């Protein structure tokens, strides 16, 4: 029987470690503001851009006041400004969502590649959050579990690419705004929940948990050797 600390680490919620819901909610506000401004201004991209940037600034001020990192706030604001400039330059309001579409394409490819090279990004992120750096890679059970759970994140980005891509091609600005909300924090919460379930499901029952990587061979290999003795 494992001790209490190991059991707690074993069952620790991935949602607790990753969080992300507040940031996802904040990220969905500027696109909604853009669509609202665009509609209120009689299909004016300029009004949509002003509304999106204004809401992004307000959300950034609130996040900073609540202890958010200024760097993250500035990056979010810069992303909204770039999206607005692209839409104004092309004259196509749907192009406000183009950076989001492209970033999800890139994310899906990077996450998939990380699994192939056995550096699953979910493990990289959780390892950094737990202060483990790369020690988790010495535990083949963790590497395998993180790899399988990372495929859930690949699916998340792929879903966005398919939906955003179809709506962007059709030029449906309102539907893009709705999809941006529907596929932000609800999808993030679902992805964290499912990937957490997959992660713990793939770990052997006797594994001490995410906070206690076990260097060396996997427990399944050890069990096989024990049966062969």
Instruction: Provide the residue-averaged pLDDT.
Output: 86
Helix content: over 70%
Oligomer: single chain
Morphology call:
elongated
Count of spatially separate domains: 1
C-alpha end-to-end distance? 23 Å
* Regions with little confidence, pLDDT below 50 for 5+ residues: 1-10, 219-229
Keywords: Membrane, Transmembrane, Transmembrane helix
Pfam families: DUF3159
Transmembrane segments: 38-60, 72-89, 109-130, 151-171, 183-203
Protein name: DUF3159 domain-containing protein
Which terms would index this structure?
single chain; 229 residues; 11 helices; 75% helix; elongated
What can you see in these coordinates?
Helix content is 75%, strand content 0%. The chain has 229 residues and is mostly helical. It has one domain. The protein is elongated, with a radius of gyration of 21 Å. The N terminus and C terminus are likely disordered. This is DUF3159 domain-containing protein. Keywords: Membrane, Transmembrane, Transmembrane helix. It comes from Saccharomonospora viridis (strain ATCC 15386 / DSM 43017 / JCM 3036 / CCUG 5913 / NBRC 12207 / NCIMB 9602 / P101) (Thermoactinomyces viridis).
Explain the layout of strands and helices.
Blueprint: H1 4-11, H2 14-18, H3 21-40, H4 45-65, H5 70-90, H6 98-116, H7 121-129, H8 140-170, H9 173-182, H10 185-202, H11 219-228
Can you give me a brief rundown of this structure?
By secondary structure, this protein is mainly alpha-helical. It contains eleven helices and no strands. It has one domain (10-223).
């Amino acid at each position: 029987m494992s001790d209490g600390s190991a059991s707690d680490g074993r069952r620790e919620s991935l949602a607790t470690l990753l969080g992300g819901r507040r940031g996802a909610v904040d990220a969905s506000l500027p696109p909604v503001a853009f669509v609202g401004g665009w509609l209120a201004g009689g299909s004016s991209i300029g009004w949509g851009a002003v509304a999106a940037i204004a809401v992004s600034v307000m959300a950034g001020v609130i996040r900073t006041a609540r202890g958010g990192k200024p760097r993250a706030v500035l990056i979010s604001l810069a992303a909204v400004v770039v999206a607005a400039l692209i839409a104004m330059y092309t004259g196509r309001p749907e192009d406000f969502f183009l950076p989001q579409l492209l970033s999800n394409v890139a994310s899906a490819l990077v996450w998939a590649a990380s699994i192939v090279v056995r550096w699953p990004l979910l493990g990289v992120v959780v390892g950094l959050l737990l202060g483990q750096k790369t020690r988790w890679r010495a535990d083949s059970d963790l590497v395998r579990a993180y790899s399988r759970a990372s495929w859930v994140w690949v699916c998340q980005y792929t879903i966005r690419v398919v939906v955003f891509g179809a709506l962007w091609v059709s030029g449906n600005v309102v539907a893009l705004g709705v999809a941006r909300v529907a596929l932000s924090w609800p999808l993030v919460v679902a992805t964290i929940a499912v990937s957490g379930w997959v992660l713990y499901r793939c770990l052997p029952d006797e594994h001490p948990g995410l906070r206690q990587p076990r260097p060396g061979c996997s427990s399944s290999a050890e069990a096989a050797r024990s049966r062969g003795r």
